[in-house]
Amino acid sequence: MGGVEDEAPALKRMKLSSKGLVGLSNGSSGEPVGGSSSDLMARPLSSEGDGEVIGSKGVIKREEFVRIITKALYSLGYKKSGVRLEEESGIPLHSSVVNLFMQQILDGHWDESIVTLNKIGLADENVVQAASFLILEQKFFELLDGEKVMDALKTLRTEITPLCSDSSRIRELSSRMLSPCGQVGSSKRDIVLVRSRSKLLEELQKLLPPTVLIPEKRLEHLVEQALVLQREACLFHNSLDKEMSLYSDHHCGKTQIPSRTSQILEAHDDEVWYVQFSHNGKYLASASNDRSAIIWEVDMNGELSIKHKLSGHQKSVSSVSWSPNDQELLTCGVEEAVRRWDVSTGTCLQVYEKNGPGLISCAWFPSGKYILSGLSDKSICMWDLDGKEVESWKGQRTLKISDLEITGDGEHMLSICKDNAILYFNKETGDERYIDEDQTITSFSLSKDSRLLLVNLLNQEIHLWNIEGDPKLVGKYRSHKRTRFVIRSCLGGLKQSFIASGSEDSQVYIWHRSSGDLVEALPGHSGAVNCVSWNPANPHMLASASDDRTIRIWGLKRLNVKYPNVRTNGVHYCNGGELR
Amino acid sequence: MGRLFVTHLEGQIYTCKHCRTHLALYEDIVSKAFHSRHGRAYLFSKVVNVTTGENEDRQMATGMHTVADIFCVGCGSIVGWKYETAHEKSQKYKEGKSVIERYKVSGPDGNNNNNYWVGNEAHVGGSDADDA
C-alpha cells in the first residue's frame, strides 16, 4: 500500500464485508477488541495492482502475511502500529464476529458468547462443543466465586453436563461446589476475573483453527523455522545459534571446522590406538601399543599437557573409558586386564581380571558404581568397583575384537555379537534385539544421548543408526580408507552435527551428519589414523591418534596465532596454519 | 602398524603359513580342482582377513577372467586371488569367490586335523608388527 494508493479518492474504496474475514487474536496481547475501525476499513480494488499473493515464488498470501505482521506488532506491544497497519492495509486482524466474541468473553457475557461462537462458522462441531465447554466452565467458576451456588448448579446440570462426555470432569466440578474458594475482596476479585478470562481466551485460541485466531508468536515461529532450516542445510555450521542473523541468509565457512593442527602430542613410544576426551572436555586419555595410557589436561587456552602417564599393563592398551564424573579412568589391555585409575593422582585403584579368558573391552555403568567388560570367551562381565564379580552374561555376547557400550539409562548393553550384528540387550529383562548389517562390523560408538549408533564396517563405510524404538539406518558415510586395521569414528561438533573418522591413508575425515557430505579430509599424520575424539565441551577441538606415535589436536584456522615453536612435556606447538 | 582387525573363525580352518591369521573354513571349499603356478589351489565361497589388490584381466586355462590378488592382512603376503568377473557363461559360478594357493596356508587336509581345529582360544596378535 504505497503512498499513491493512500491518495486515491474515497470513491475508489469499497466497504469491506465482515463475511469471510476471519479474525485472529487472543485478546491477551492488547489489540483492540470490539467495534474496531478495521471492520469498516476499505480494501483497495484489485485493479490497483494489489495482488493476492506476494513474494517471488507466489506462495505467500498477502492477506495472511499482513495479518501475521499485525498480530506480531500487537504481541510486541506496538498497539498503535498494529491499528495503523490494519487501517492502511484494509486487512483487519479479525472479523467483527470474532471481535464481538472476544469482547463478550472478556466482559463475561457467557450466553451471548456461545451464540456468537456458533455464528463464526466453524466446520468442526467437536471444536464448537469443546470451546462451549470451556466457556461454560468459566461461567460456572465465576458463579461459584460470586456465591451464586444455585445458578452454578443449574449451569452444571443443564448446560455443562449435556456437553461433556467426561464424567470424571463433571464429578470434579461438582466437588468444587462442596468446597468453594474463600471470599475475595471485590476489587481484587475483578483483577482475578479479568486475568482468568484472558487465560480462557488463550485456551480458546489453542482450540480454534488458526484461520480464526492466529496462534501466539506465529511470526517468530516462522522466522525461527527458517533459521533452523538454514542452519541444518549449512554444511559447516559449528557455531552458537546466537551468531545467526536475520539480515542475510546463513552460511558458515569452513573456518568453523577444526582443520588446523594446533598441537602435536608426542609422548607415546609406539602407535597410538585410542583417544577419548572426558565428558567435561577437560581431559584427553590416549592408549597405545607401547602398553601405556596417558591422561592429558586441557588448559584454559585449549592447550594440552601431560597430567599422568599410566603404566602397568603387560600388553598393548586398546581402549579407555571415562567414569561418569570424569574422576576415574578405565584402561583395557589387549586380552589382558582392565585397570581403574584415579585421574587426579594417576594411581591404579583396581585391576579387574579373570583366570583364563582375557578382557577385551571396558565400559562404566552410568551410576559409576559398576564396570563392564567383554571377555575373550565371548561373555560380558560386570564388577563392582572393588573387583567383585556382580553379574555375568554367557554365550555369544561379544567378539574377540569388540566394543562395548551401555545406554545412559543403564538399561541396555550394546556389543558386537557376530560378525555383522550388534546385540542390543536389556540386562534387566533379558530382551535381545539385533542391529543387522550386511557387512562385517569393525567398531562402533554410541552418541552422548544414547540415541545414535555409529558403526564402522569392513567395506570402508560408516553407518549411522537411530536406535530409539526400532533401529533405523539414517546415514551412510564413505571416502575414508580401511583395509587392515580397527579404525574408529565419532560424532561431534555443535549438536553432534558432524562425524569424524580415522583412516588408513593418514587423514582425518569429517562429514556433515545429516547430509552425508564430506566436509574435510585433513592431512598431517604420517601413519594410519586409528581413532578420533571430538571434545564434548568445545565443538572446535578434535583429537586424532595415529600409527605415527602422535596425537594431533585440531582447531580452527586463525591468522597470526603465535605459539612458541618448542617441544615441552611431549607437546609440539604449531605456529599458525603452516603445519598440517 | 595399527591394531589389526581380524575375524576369528571356528572349526576346521586354514591359516596363513607365515603369521597364522585365519583365512578360510574347510566347509567353505567349493572345489579343490584348481591349480596355480605353485601347485594346488582351492576355491572358497568365503575368505576372511584378506585385502584385495587391483583388478586385472587374466587369461586362464578356462578363459578370460577379471581377477584381483588377495593378501593376508596379518603379514601382507599374497595368498591367492579373487574372481571379480568371469567372461564366459560356464565360468560365472566363480564370481565373488576366492582361490587360495595350498602352499601358502596351513590347514586340515594332509596334516593332523586336530592341529587345525580351532575354537574360542584362537588368538591373533594385536599388531602386525609383532607378527611380521
From TrEMBL, chain A:
It holds the Pfam family LisH_WDR26. WD repeats lie at residues 265-306, 310-351, 352-386, 522-557. GO terms for cellular component: cytoplasm. PROSITE patterns: CTLH (PS50897), LISH (PS50896), WD_REPEATS_1 (PS00678), WD_REPEATS_2 (PS50082), WD_REPEATS_REGION (PS50294). Residues 22-48 are annotated as: Disordered. Residues 94-151 form the CTLH domain. The keyword Electron transport does not apply. It is found in: Cytoplasm. Keywords: Cytoplasm, Repeat, WD repeat. Residues 25-38 have a biased composition (Low complexity). It comes from the Eukaryota. InterPro entries: CTLH_C, LisH, WD40/YVTN_repeat-like_dom_sf, WD40_PAC1, WD40_repeat_CS, WD40_repeat_dom_sf, WD40_rpt, WD_repeat-ST_regulator. Interacts with RANBPM. This is CTLH domain-containing protein. It comes from Glycine max (Soybean).
UniProtKB/TrEMBL annotation, chain B:
It comes from Glycine soja. The keyword Transmembrane does not apply. Belongs to the yippee family. Keywords: Metal-binding, Zinc. Residues 111-132 are annotated as: Disordered. This is Protein yippee-like. GO terms for molecular function: metal ion binding. Transmembrane segments: none annotated. Residues 12-109 form the Yippee domain.
